[in-house]
Write a structure and sequence with these properties.
The protein is α/β, with parallel strands linked by helices. It has a domain at about 230-333: Helicase, Ruva Protein, domain 3 (Orthogonal Bundle). It is built from 15 helices and 11 strands. The strands form 4 sheets. It has a 5-stranded parallel sheet with strand order 2-5-8-1-9. Strands 3-4 form a two-stranded antiparallel sheet. A two-stranded antiparallel sheet has the order 6-7. It starts with a helix and ends with a helix.
């Protein structure tokens, strides 16, 4: 075995240990939600942002804060409200005066300058404020009054939204939804999980989360593992399968099904295919493989594509969801 292959195998083992350690540490604070935790970590390792959707009180905010703690990276929380302004997120120029009495403008960074940013209840802010995150999410930079400021690396936005309340909310535009690698649906706890939640949160025992790596290695490890993910290979037949799924979800395509033709206005674009590919590579690494399988792609399809399917009004009237349409395409692929 070559030295290079030995190094790659060692990196894969390190990746699996790191990912498992994160899951184990998060399990001290998060009851149940194993799929949510795994998908969230997979999206981060794939280099993408996450939209967490669920009813209030299910632990979405706690999950994001716990991920930042266990990863050992900097964290900021932005509570989105209707009166939040773009400068409240990005920062602004302020007039300062030094000891000599000279005045100058100095940039004061906003809360967007952190490795992990929690955009809490993102759909409560207006479109102008929501759009302030677009440049940060895509270019990893912020432009203020003609000046550009780089954001720290690695950089992730983890946003939450409540699908129940509609009054006083502003649905995210398709352009911003497309910036999220995953949309993860947070389920309600089961009876046994609810009992465990009560035991952990109303008793005297406290769980203090710790970073799984020394602080000086935390950010660098995430960057290193993200590069490892890109080394996973995909065979041409599986690449053709993925492209076929994307076209099958696109209305007007010769591959689209009846459900797609009847209920989908717009299908996923290239960024959707990229999201599936990157997430599938993470799942492959977790199985200690450097090549994709069909199962890896299948696991990534719904969280990566459900928010990229733009459905028509008839779909809502008939109770047809994006997940149902994706399931139908998976069965026929």
């Amino acid at each position: 075995m070559s030295t290079n292959q030995t190094n790659i195998d060692g990196n894969v083992e390190a990746f699996v240990r790191y990912f498992s350690a994160l899951e184990g540490e998060l399990g001290k604070a998060i009851v149940g939600m194993k799929d949510v935790v795994r998908l969230s970590l997979a999206a981060i390792m794939g280099g993408g942002h996450i939209l967490l959707e669920g009813a209030p009180g299910l632990g979405k905010t706690l999950l994001v804060k716990s991920i930042a703690t266990t990863m050992g990276v900097s964290f900021q929380r932005i509570q989105f409200t209707s009166d939040l302004m773009p400068s409240d997120i990005t920062g602004t120029q302020v007039l300062t005066e030094n000891a000599s009495g000279n005045r100058s403008f100095e940039f004061k960074p906003g809360p967007v300058f952190a490795n992990i940013v929690l955009a809490d209840e993102i759909n409560r802010a207006g479109p102008k404020t929501q759009s302030a995150l677009l440049e940060a999410m895509e270019e990893k930079q912020v432009s203020v009054l003609g000046n550009t400021y780089r954001l720290p690396s690695p950089y992730f936005v983890l946003a939450t939204q409540n699908p129940v309340e509609l009054e006083g909310t502003y649905p995210l535009p398709e352009a911003q939804l497309d910036r999220f690698l995953f949309k993860v649906l947070v389920p309600s706890p089961s009876q046994s999980e609810l009992k465990e939640i009560l035991a952990r949160t109303t008793g005297s025992v406290r769980y203090d989360l710790q970073p799984v790596l020394p602080p000086e290695h935390c950010a660098g490890a995430v960057i290193q593992f993200r590069e490892l993910v890109r080394q996973v290979l995909i065979a041409p037949p599986l690449e053709d399968l993925l492209v076929g799924v994307i076209f099958a979800l696109t209305p007007g395509s010769s591959h689209s099904s009846r459900l797609v033709s009847d209920y989908v206005r717009f299908g996923p674009g290239p960024r959707g295919a990229q999201a599936v590919m990157m997430a599938a590579k993470v799942f492959a690494l977790l199985e200690r493989r450097l090549n994709l399988s069909y199962e890896d792609i299948r696991q990534a399809l719904k969280p990566a594509l459900r928010h990229r399917l733009i459905l028509n009004y008839q779909a809502e009237a008939d109770g047809i969801t994006a997940d149902k349409i994706i399931d139908d395409v998976i069965r026929k692929s």
